[in-house]
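Form 7-S
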Amino acid sequence: MVANAEALDAGGQLTVSRLPATLMTLRRNTEFWRSNQPPAPGTRIVFTGSPVLLEYYPGEGLQIQPLGNFGKANAAWSYCRSKGDTTCTTLRSLLDAMIGLAADRGTFKAWEYYFDFEGGVPPWISSMAQGTGIQALSRAYSLTGATKYRDAASAALGAFETPPPAGVAVPAIAGTHYLMYSYAPQLFIFNGFLQSLVGLDAYGDLTGDPRGAALFRAGNPHGKAIVPLSDTGSWSRYSIGGPDSTVEYHTLLRDILGTLCNRTRNKIYCDHEARYTQYLALRTG
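Output:
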């Protein structure tokens, strides 16, 4: 993590807006490694006094995990909504912290990753994390009425209007593909792209901003065109032309397709959710 910070600084990329996330990462690692051995890869840790979770990556230390944090925010929103709690302190405290960790990336705000990952060097972004963040912020705005969450979501939309490596938008079959990894413009991962569509659709619905609806419309025809490419006839693929999904990623893709089915009632999404449920039952039953 120290090497990553030094590399950012040497490349002139350790900007003022990146300091909060960089300093938090360094501080939390210093605190953790004083008295702990390496945990299992993927272990997520929350420190006293902050709701932000960090994840352990071997060789990279503890790193802020934007997608994990926004997933946690969505879970808090779901709980508060079920209880009729429009204050939802747990949701607000986490999103307030995440807004403070967003960086200026070109013309938009982004939740960046500050470590090397599968060939990508920091700072990079993910359509899945960015879209899930926009979704969580839009939900918080709808639940609490606090306009700062709508404004933060709006400020992050530019990622889906900007080509890589700054953004995640690339022209593709029938529309626009939103990249899982901003550093990998040829890698089309099904679950990350489709989850970003969910986030954009939720943003448009909950804020009424036509910009979000336009970005969803740009990606949705592409989504409908490529979903059949994820189907092997007995399982799902992780990416276009790529390997079969793990059980975890197959289940995730099935669940995202279910969400898109419920939101759009589109036959392609609905049929493949049903297919992947059948495949899962045959393999794991």
